[in-house]
């Protein structure tokens, strides 16, 4: 046993030595570069600062040197063959299942397809903001390089630094660290806008906004979605949808409408904009004719979307046109027979109309008119039975099923003496509602 422990100890020492050689070399080079930058005379030379910038970047790179986001797990294991995996676990993060290989200085996260999706360096060999300090060093080099002798070197390092920030942003995004991801995307944007790079990256602007939105920082999301749009990038209309949603969260409904209308005029066929616009008009009780116009446009774009006919039915119902509402709700279930919300809406429309008639009947003094109202009431209740039954059968939500069972129990109670079938139905749904 003692010999085995010694052998394992020697093996671990060899593996650790192989793992940290790049790191050790990078740290030594960094210490030398930092000493040079601290020398007053050498600090006046722009090359001193490009060397320091490169040294910071090298320390950053050392733990993840040679690997990349998107590499397969097999490829990474080959590239890191001299480094030992000390632990392998599985974890669900940001709605994704990851296999995590843990090394002495990092964790590598593999998505379900086996590709490297993210990394987290767990052992910082230099306790500084490595990428931030590298950028500061390059800015210092650019300031001192009055003869432009180092222009290409500085520019190349800035572009490489931008790519490092992008990788950090993607890693953070994959793991659901949206604030960190947004900050890294912004850093990549800022480097792109650096006077020595001059590459305005509107896609990164958009993703800065998107990750801010996902992190519920809506002011920041508004800022960067607006910048992306102003610079000519709107992700084929999605930027308008997200920007409008950010304004909606802040209860700025007028700006929400303005953004969505702008997006709709530019992309009349983009469903995300159209649906957002419809929902906003409905929620703000705006002009029904305008809402119907938008819904009809959406239906033309996507005729097989049952929810659009359901939305149209809701508008007609709010306008107290039950016939038109039911017509639209029926269209929703004709389009998708499994769309149980449509069945529920049909049943509820008839049931609600019956309740209104019952109120009128209770106030009617004329017997003939009263009897006519009762007959009309029962016609509407009977009309609600079939759609409610279909809704109960199709529904997958137990809460919805419980509500529908209550409606059916009440209607069948009224008709329980009409036939044995009606009585049996009452007993069925009465038992179900008591059970629930």
3D structure, described in words:
- A four-stranded antiparallel beta sheet has the order 1-2-3-4.
- The chain has 436 residues and is mainly α.
- The model is unreliable at 1-19 (pLDDT under 50).
- It starts with a helix and ends with a helix.
- It has helices at residues 2-38, 46-61, 73-79, 130-144, 151-174, 178-192, 202-214, 218-230, 238-249, 253-266, 271-283, 288-301, 306-318, 322-335, 340-363, 367-394, 398-414, 420-435; strands at 87-93, 96-102, 106-110, 116-121.
- Strand 2 (96-102) and strand 3 (106-110) form a beta hairpin.
- It has 18 helices and four strands.
- It has a domain at 303-436: Alpha Horseshoe (Serine Threonine Protein Phosphatase 5, Tetratricopeptide repeat), CATH 1.25.40.10.
Name of the CATH class of the domain at 303-436: Mainly Alpha
Oligomer: single chain
The end-to-end distance, rounded to whole angstroms, is: 63 Å
Radius of gyration: 33 Å
Largest sheet: 4 strands, antiparallel
Amount of helix: 55-70%
Order of helices and strands: HHHEEEEHHHHHHHHHHHHHHH
Mean pLDDT: 91
